[in-house]
Design brief:
This protein is of the alpha/beta class and 265 residues long. Helices cover 38% and strands 23% of the residues. The chain has an 11-stranded mixed sheet. Helix 4 links the parallel strand 5 and strand 6. The longest helix is centred in the C-terminal third of the chain and has 27 residues.
């Protein structure tokens, strides 16, 4: 059975989510998504709420979709996705020790959007991560991965690291298109999906690009991917800077224009 999944999602359990978990489930089913790696922001969630979110993911999972609970945690200036968590760790010190506490309860650990902390792979991160998010459509666009991260991962693997590639949509709003996807083959059950993700038995893809878990380009034209990556990152950066400037001026941008722009990027 071919399963299509998405990663790095957020619901109203986090301060920036716009859909409840139940609404999100229906939203994803309508778009033929089979599994979702949901990573709520841990810094504004209390212990009881975190445990309730984990339980809700399990209760809402069914034959149509598997909702895999997780949390996005911080270490120094880096963000880390703790996926398939069995328990919530109350936000404590921003320390290596806290990372290890999370690692104890997480099935899969992924370094998110490395460019945001200037690609600094701290020793504490290196000791816990299973993979790196080479493609985050919120910052890199929907057409191609961030080539600098992909090249860095390939370099790590060449030096003997067993680090895998992951992709995400970093979902906050309904207008974000569900791409890139994580595609694998197997039963639509949490433990089976996690096992495939840990073993690297999956690919990352959109309509024109396919990359395997080791960072090898299976489908796609490299020069075109580099161009798409460059201009997507530039346009997204420009859009974010313009939005911040307009917000400072307290001007209103029509909602339809904002949503259309996000869909295109």
């Amino acid at each position: 059975m071919i399963l299509v999944g998405v990663s790095h999602l957020r619901t109203t359990h986090s301060y920036s989510g716009t859909l409840s978990l139940r609404e999100f489930k229906e939203f994803l089913i309508e778009r033929n998504i089979d599994f979702a790696l949901i990573t709520e922001r841990s810094d504004f969630i209390e212990q009881e709420d975190g445990e309730r979110f984990i339980k809700e993911c399990h209760n809402l999972s069914d034959s149509q979709i598997t909702l895999i609970p997780g949390f996005e945690v911080t270490y120094r200036d880096a963000h880390v996705l703790m996926i398939g968590t069995s328990h919530f760790v109350k936000a404590g010190s921003n320390s290596a020790e806290n990372l290890l506490k999370w690692k104890k309860y997480a099935e899969l650990v992924v370094w998110a959007h490395p460019h945001r902390n200037k690609y600094l792979l701290y020793d504490a991160l290196k000791n816990v991560i299973d993979g790196i998010e080479i493609w985050n459509s919120q910052y890199d666009g929907k057409r191609a991965p961030r080539m600098k991260v992909l090249n860095s991962l390939q370099g790590l693997r060449a030096r003997g690291a067993n680090t895998l590639t992951y992709a995400s949509i970093d979902f906050h709003r309904e207008e974000q298109i569900i791409s890139p996807n994580i595609v694998l083959e197997g039963p639509n059950k949490l433990q089976d999906i996690i096992a495939k993700l840990k073993a690297g038995e999956f690919v990352l893809k959109n309509s024109t690009v396919t990359i395997n878990a080791k960072g090898k380009i299976i489908k796609g034209i490299l020069p075109l991917m580099k161009f798409q990556s460059f201009y997507s990152i530039a346009l997204i950066s420009m859009f974010k800077n313009m939005s911040a400037f307009i917000a400072k001026l307290r001007l209103l941008v029509p909602g339809n224009l904002r949503r259309t722009t996000r869909k295109k990027l």
